[in-house]
Design brief:
Blueprint (H helix, E strand, L loop, with lengths): L13 H6 L11 H5 L4 E5 L6 H12 L7 H5 L3 H4 L9 E6 L10 H20 L5 H9 L3 H15 L3 E6 L3 H10 L1 H8 L4 H9 L5 E6 L3 H7 L6 E2 L14 H13 L7 H12 L18 H14 L9 H13 L7 H13 L1 E4 L16 H7 L4 E6 L2 E5 L3 H18 L6 H13 L4 H13 L1 H5 L4 H12 L5 E9 L2 E9 L9 E10 L5 H19 L2 H7 L3 E10 L2 E7 L1
Parallel strand pairs: 1-4, 1-5, 2-3, 3-4, 11-12
Antiparallel strand pairs: 6-8, 7-8, 9-10, 10-11, 12-13
Helix pairs in contact: 6-8, 9-10, 17-19, 19-23, 20-21
C-alpha cells in the first residue's frame, strides 16, 4: 500500500517534494509555454505563492547534471509525458538573493561573498567540462565578476548553453532600501553600482534567464538604459502558473480524504477557505477566462491543521503571514506615510477597493507617490484585479486574510493617534458578551467613547466614512465575527455586517447589522430625526434581504442604528 504523501507546508525544494513523497500540484505544463517566450523572463508574485518551488522545479528540469534523473523526478508529471527538446540541456546557475544578507556593514563584500559561494557550487557541479587550469584559477579568485567572466569565456568557447535562475531577485535591494535608505539603494543599483554591474554581466552571457521577486521596483532601477527581462507578471497565459485553483484544492482534499486522513465534507472546507485564501487574479484578461487563485501556503496551513485537529485552524491566518506583512509594511514605509498615501490606505481599508491604472514598472524613488501606491499593494498581494472601469482597473482587497491586515494597520494607526491608550483586552471581554450573550451596548459604547476621545480623528473628521473606518478597526479585534463593511443587501450597502464565524466558534448566538449615521454639529433636531428614520428604513430593508438568513447561520440578528453628531454618539438603538 502506497504511503500517504506528506503536506509540503513551507517546503520550496522540488527534489525533496518529489523524492520524499510529498504532495505536489503539477505546474510543469507551463514549461513549453515559457520556452515560447523571449529568452529573459521576469515574473513577480506575492509571498507564499510557490515561487521558490517553481524555480526549483525549473532548475531540476533544465540542469544537464540532473538529466539522468528526469524519469524519476518528472515521470508522473505532465512534462514527463511531454518533454521538450531543452530538457537537461543547460548548465544552470541558481541564485537566491534572499540569502545575500544586507545587514552587514560592507554591502558589496557581503554580496560578492554570496555570489562567489554560489559560483563555486556551480563549478563543483560542472568542473569536468572545464579545463583544469581554468578550474584552478576559478577557485583561486575572490571576485564574483571575475568568476562570471571565466565561465562566460570558457562556456562560449566550448558551446555550453547557460541558464540563470534568480529567486527573490529584489530581496537584497528591498532590505537595503528599508535599512539603509534611498541614497545607499541608489548607489548600488545605478551608474556603476555593484548590484547593477553584476546584472550587466548577466546580459548576453546566459542563453536563458528567469527571475522572480515580489515587486518591480528593483528591475526598473536596474534596467534603465538596457533591457534584461521580458515581464510576464500580468500576462494572462501565466495567471494560473503559481497558486492553486479551486480544482487543485478540491483534488488535494479528495486525495487526503480517500487516504483516510481527512474527515469532513470537502465542499464545506472549500467554502470555509475561499473567503480567507482565494480570489487572486493577476491579469485583466483573466477576469472572465480563469478561475480565481488560492494562496498555496495558506491552503497547506489549513489542511495540515484540519488533519491534525479534525477541524479548521482556530486562527485562519498563518503566523508567517504576519511576518510577511511586517516586511511589506517596512518596505512601503508605512511608518512615514504622507497624508495622501495614508488616505489611500484608509480608503482601501474602509471601502475595500480602489479604481486606478496598474503601473507595471516604477523606480524606488517613486514608491512614495500616492498614484503608485495601489500598484505596489497589488504586487504585494494586498490588492487584486476584480473588475474594469473603462480604461482603468478595479483593485480590491482579495480576501479576509488580507482584509485583517488592513484592519490591523488602521488599528495601529488609531492607537498611535489616540491620546489615551485603548485597552484591547477589555474590549475583547466585551466582544465575548456581545457574541454569546447579545450584550452589544457596552462594546459599541466603548468604541464610541474611544472615537470621541481621539483628538486626531476629531481634528480631521470626514463624516460617516471616518466613523466607519474607526469602528471597523476596533471591531476587527473581535475574533467571533467576520467583519464585512459595505455588504450589498437588497440593492443597497449596509455599513457593517458582523457575520458569526461558526466554523471556529460554533456557540456564537448573535449577529449584527450596524448602520452608522453622521451629522455635523450645527445640524438641527429636525434633520437628525429625518436621518434617523431613513436609517431605520434602510436597516430593515437590509435585514429582509434573502442573503441575510444564510449569513447569520441561525443566530439571532440584531439591527443597530448609531447616530453621531460631530464626534459624539447622539443616539443608539436596536430597531
Amino acid at each position: 500500500m502506497e504511503e500517504v504523501k506528506r503536506i509540503p507546508y513551507g517546503v520550496s525544494d522540488f527534489i525533496a517534494v518529489v523524492e520524499q513523497n510529498q504532495y505536489y500540484v503539477d505546474k510543469t505544463m507551463y514549461l513549453p509555454l515559457l520556452e515560447e517566450q523571449p529568452s529573459n523572463l521576469f515574473l513577480i508574485r506575492p509571498r507564499r505563492f510557490g515561487k521558490s518551488l517553481f524555480l526549483n522545479m525549473l532548475r531540476a528540469y533544465y540542469d544537464s547534471s540532473q538529466k539522468e534523473k528526469f524519469q524519476k523526478r518528472f515521470g508522473n508529471l505532465w512534462i514527463g509525458k511531454n518533454p521538450t527538446p531543452l530538457q537537461g540541456k543547460y548548465q544552470v546557475l541558481f541564485l537566491d538573493f534572499s540569502k545575500a544578507g544586507a545587514g552587514m556593514e560592507n554591502l558589496e563584500a557581503n554580496f560578492n561573498l554570496y555570489c562567489c559561494r554560489q559560483l563555486d557550487g556551480f563549478m563543483a557541479t560542472y568542473e569536468d567540462a572545464y579545463p583544469k587550469r581554468i578550474v584552478e584559477d576559478f577557485y583561486a579568485s575572490a571576485s564574483a565578476a571575475d568568476k562570471l567572466n571565466m565561465i562566460e569565456i570558457e562556456a562560449g568557447r566550448e558551446g555550453y548553453p547557460l541558464y540563470l535562475i534568480i529567486d527573490e531577485y529584489d530581496n537584497f535591494t528591498n532590505v537595503v532600501l528599508n535599512e539603509r535608505g534611498n541614497d545607499v539603494y541608489h548607489a548600488i543599483t545605478h551608474t556603476s553600482g555593484f548590484y547593477r554591474e553584476i546584472f550587466k554581466k548577466f546580459k548576453g552571457m546566459f542563453e536563458r534567464i528567469f527571475m522572480m521577486g515580489i515587486s518591480p521596483v528593483t528591475l526598473d532601477d536596474l534596467t534603465s538604459g538596457f533591457n534584461i527581462g521580458w515581464n510576464i507578471s500580468t500576462n494572462y497565459r501565466f495567471n494560473m502558473m503559481l497558486g492553486f485553483s479551486e480544482n487543485d484544492v478540491r483534488e488535494m482534499l479528495q486525495y487526503y480524504k480517500d487516504a483516510g486522513q481527512l474527515k469532513g465534507d470537502i465542499d464545506t472546507m472549500i467554502m470555509d477557505m475561499k473567503p480567507w485564501y482565494d480570489n487572486y487574479c493577476f491579469a485583466e484578461e483573466s477576469l472572465e477566462r480563469d478561475p480565481k487563485m488560492f494562496n498555496c501556503d495558506m491552503v497547506f496551513y489549513y489542511l495540515r491543521n484540519y488533519i491534525n485537529l479534525g477541524k479548521p485552524p482556530k486562527e485562519m491566518i498563518a503566523p508567517n503571514t504576519r511576518t510577511d506583512y511586517n516586511k511589506m509594511k517596512k518596505l512601503i514605509r508605512l511608518d512615514h506615510l504622507d497624508g495622501d498615501r495614508k488616505s489611500v490606505l484608509r480608503k482601501i481599508a474602509e471601502e475595500g477597493y480602489v479604481v486606478t491604472n496598474l503601473v507595471t514598472s516604477f523606480s524606488a524613488d517613486r514608491i512614495t507617490e500616492p498614484e503608485m501606491f495601489p500598484s505596489l499593494l497589488f504586487y504585494y498581494g494586498m490588492l487584486t484585479i476584480t473588475a474594469t472601469r473603462g480604461e482603468r482597473l478595479v483593485l480590491s482587497i482579495p480576501n479576509n486574510n488580507v482584509r485583517k491586515q488592513y484592519f490591523e494597520y488602521l488599528l495601529e494607526d488609531y492607537q498611535l493617534e489616540n491620546k489615551e491608550y485603548i485597552n484591547l483586552n477589555n474590549l475583547r471581554d466585551l466582544f465575548y458578551d456581545m457574541s454569546y450573550e447579545g450584550k452589544w451596548r457596552e462594546a459599541l459604547e466603548f468604541i464610541a467613547h474611544a472615537y470621541k476621545d481621539n483628538s486626531s480623528v476629531r481634528s480631521m473628521i470626514e463624516g460617516e466614512r471616518n466613523i466607519q473606518g474607526f469602528f471597523t478597526a476596533y471591531l476587527s479585534v473581535n475574533a467571533y465575527y467576520l467583519i464585512a463593511p459595505e455588504v450589498e443587501l437588497n440593492h443597497g450597502f449596509c455599513d457593517m455586517f458582523l457575520m458569526p464565524d461558526l466554523q471556529r466558534y460554533n456557540n456564537v448566538a448573535h449577529s449584527y447589522i450596524l448602520e452608522l449615521k453622521y451629522l455635523p454639529i450645527k445640524e438641527n433636531d429636525e434633520k437628525a430625526g429625518n436621518q434617523w428614520q431613513e436609517a431605520v428604513e434602510q436597516i430593515h430593508r437590509y435585514a429582509e434581504a434573502s442573503r441575510v438568513r444564510q449569513l447569520v447561520q441561525g443566530t439571532q440578528l440584531h439591527c443597530i442604528v448609531m447616530q453621531f453628531c460631530g464626534w459624539e454618539l447622539k443616539r443608539m438603538e436596536e430597531v
